[in-house]
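A favour, since you know our C-alpha cells better than I do. Would you make up a two-line entry for one protein for me to read? Write everything out right here, beneath this request.
=====
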Amino acid sequence: MPEGDTVWQTARRLHDALAGKVLTRSDFRVPKYATVDLAGRSVLDTVSRGKHLLTRFEGGLTLHSHLLMEGAWKVYGGGERWKGGPAHQIRAVLATADRTAVGYRLQVLELMRTTEEERTVGHLGPDLLGPDWDPDLALANLLAAPSRPLGEALLDQRNLAGIGNVYKSELCFLLGVTPWLPVGALPAEHAPKLPALAKKLLEANRDRVVRRTTGVRGQDLFVYGRAPRPCLRCGTSVRVADQGDGSQERPTYWCPRCQAGPAPAPGSPQKWRDRYRRTSN
C-alpha cells in the first residue's frame, strides 16, 4: 500500500495537471457512477489526507479515491499512449484539453458533496504532511492504548495519518525498539521524538523518486525489504515476520541486535522467510 509521501506526490501530480482547468470528459467505470458526467466543470484542486485523495470540482463535488494496495493515478499528455495497465483495470478518467488523468485499479472511488468530506476522512489522526499536523495530539493518540504493539499503533491511521509498512519498520529501527514493543514501554526519552521523526522522514521523501531513510550511500533503507541481508549498523541478519491483529498481517522487518523489545512468537517468521529465500535466489 502506498505510504503518505507517495499519496502526497500523486495529489500534487493530479493538481498540477488538472487544477484550474475545465473537464472536457469524465468517465467513471464503476456501476454506481456509470452515468455521471462532470464535463464542463472546473477542477478546483486535489489534496491528500493521509492515504486518501480528494479531487474537488466546481459546484461543490469531490471525488474521493484510495489507492489501497495496487491502485494508481497516471497523468498523460494529449495523444500519449495510456500505459498504466489494461483497459479493464481503468476505473476513472478525467480529461482536460491537454491532460488526462487515468485511475487504475481503484478499489475505493466515491463521488460526494464537498461539504461531506469529513464523513470519509474525519476519523483520521493528524496528517504528517498536512496543515492539520499536531505532534502532541499524534503522541497522545499513540499513548492512549499503552499495551498495543508499536508497529500496529503506527499503522492505525486514526492515531496519525500517512505511515505505512515501510515507515513503520524504519521508524522502529531508528528508535532502537522492535515493532512488538508495547507503546507504553517506549523509553521516556524516545516517545516524544517519535512524531517529529516520522514527520521528518515523510517530508524528506515527498519530493524524491526513490525513498531513502539511511543517509548511507547506495543503501536506501535500514531494514525494510532487507531480510536476510546484514544490518547496516551491526551486521546481524535482518529478520522478517508477520505483524497484525489477525484481520490484516503485514511483513515487518527488524534487527534483533539493534532493536530492543519483544520478538514475534516462534515460527511466525516462516512464511516471509521462505518467500525471501525464493526472491533472493
DSSP finds seven helices and ten strands in the chain.
